[in-house]
Amino acid sequence: MDKKDVTYEYIEPEMKVVKEEALAEYNSQRKYTYDEVQFWITPDHRRWELIDGIPIAMASPSPEHQLISAELSFLFSNYLRGKNCQLIHPVDTVLSYEKGSDTYFIPDLIVLCDRNKIKSNGIFGAPDLVIEILSPATSSRDKVEKRHKYEEAGVKEYWIVDPRNKSIEVSLLQINEKFTSRTYKREDVVKVSIFRDLEINIAAVFANPWLHINDEQKT
User: Is the whole-model pTM more than 0.85?
Assistant: First the structure.
């Protein structure tokens, strides 16, 4: 399922501030490529993703999002210490690169086992595992467009973490190169498919007491 070897031309970073409202005027007239938008930022220093040539400004992460990301990082990093695979925090990820590539993402977390996919300015090629943490602004894209792109690129395992329902949807790539999915709840344990002996207790992902402050305020 691995794609052909990645080649790319590295451009010395020169961040370009692009306002969302200004860009909206151009979306209907043209589409963009990774090489054009990889160094764009919004005025408040947020980055962009690109789906089928359409630039999308990333929402700033909430405290809840970051607390869950920290718990997942702890659980995976402890297991991966000393192993060949690495956990990598948000970084430009071009799933299938060639001149004119029109899609790239900045996933919340990835696990990568092929160090040759790491280049100076991002990851070029499909990660082994991708984790996206839902927010109101990204929910639809994570569940539909991104899921399709990750499947198409050959990502072996894709997690969608749902903070509201305290659940994780795990999609596994099958021999027919299609995802099959199962949703795990707080009482469940996930067997991480890309490793022989890693299991993640769902309750541990949402264990930080600070995640429940708003719940306590409602009662």
Answer: yes
